[in-house]
Amino acid sequence: MNRRILTLLVALVPIVAFGVLLAVVTVPYVSLGPGPTFDTLGEVDGKQVVDIEGTETHPTTGHLNMTTVSQRDGLTLGEALTLWLSGREQLVPRDLVYPPGKSRQEVDEDNTADFKQSEASAEYAALGYLKYPKAVAVADVSDPGPSAGKLQAGDALDAVNGARVATVEQFTSLLKKTKPGQVVSIDYRRKNAPPGTAEITLGHSKDRDYGFLGVKVMDAPWAPFAVDFNLANIGGPSAGLMFSLAVVDKLTNGDLAASKFIAGTGTISADGQVGPIGGITHKMIAAQEAGATVFLVPTDNCYEARSDNDKLQLVKVDTLGQAVDALHTISTGGQPPTC
């Protein structure tokens, strides 16, 4: 064999080997980057993102966009290097996203559950801000369970065996006087439906000696109309603030966005407290690229947001009420609290 060809072949071996490594070997990292944004005042797949049925709603203008973080798993060495060199993606150890001892499916299920909880909290926070009265609200119904098919999440429970209840404490105290196998009468109100009464045979539970109704209840603001959130394949709790703002905007004459492109992020509790989130710089990039000029930032995320921003107006929020006030201030040309 020609020596020159042999030398060339020898030189190509490590190059080919490195190419194979880049294409085949996976790395224990996950890539995080800007994800899609969704206008909570708009539509997705022909459905209102925040759909309110059973009461009057008001016209809205502008955008109130929730933001997300994209993530990519199962990266090859070549993909990881390419994403890292792009400057738009962050590589983090996989264990931070998918903890050891939990499967990817379990983590995804947890994220989905967090998202569903954020929807419920967003509704409660908005209704509380709008001064709807509290009730003993059903948050979840065990299925199978004694109440499955008789009570629904979202029902307001008004009486047990004719005795009126206004708080979870009163409701629980009456249940503690029952026995498994006993039939109880529950008066309830249901959204977009007439009130009703359910006859329920109480079950057994190993953690109590009194009757088991099979519902999770909470003291929460209640309204007779339905609020539905129509976003699929989104995980985590960080859409709560923007969902709440959309509910408030649709139920009031305020027109919160006032034709502006507002984006933001933040968890929300049922009492309207806004909490911090992860990946805020990625969300800010996504918002800016979508066209936003104002970004709502949980106070605890302000330092990180401020350190990597030169284009968005960063508005600091601690509560839903503060966020509403800040948007009203912006719409009238004022200066809201900033990071």
Total tally of structural domains: 2
- SSE string: HEEEEEHEHHEEEHEEEEHEEEHEHEH
Instruction: Provide the structure class.
Output: alpha+beta
Helix amount:
25-40%
Q: Please give the alpha-carbon distance between the first and last residues.
A: 70 Å
Strand order of the largest sheet: 6-1-5-14-17-18
Low-confidence stretches: 16-23
Second CATH tier, the architecture of the largest domain: 2-Layer Sandwich
Radius of gyration: 26 Å
Number of helices: 9
- What proportion of the residues form beta strands (DSSP E)? 25-35%
Mean pLDDT: 89
- Which oligomerization state do the chains in this entry correspond to? single chain
Q: Please state the overall shape, judged from the principal axes of the Cα atoms.
A: globular
Please count the beta strands (DSSP E, at least 2 residues each): 18
EC number: 3.4.21.53
InterPro entries: Lon_proteolytic, Lon_Prtase, PDZ, PDZ_sf, Ribosomal_Su5_D2-typ_SF, Ribsml_uS5_D2-typ_fold_subgr
Active site: 238, 283
Domain PDZ: 112-190
Describe the structure.
By secondary structure, this protein is α+β, with helices and mostly antiparallel strands. Helices cover about 30% and strands about 25% of the residues. The chain folds into two domains: about 35-130 and about 225-330, 2-Layer Sandwich (Ribosomal Protein S5, domain 2); about 135-220, Pdz3 Domain (Roll), CATH 2.30.42. The protein is built from nine helices and 18 strands. Helix 4 (about 105-130) runs parallel beside helix 6 (about 240-250). The longest helix is centred in the middle third of the chain and has 26 residues, at about 105-130. The relative contact order is 0.16. Residues about 15-25 have low confidence and may be disordered.
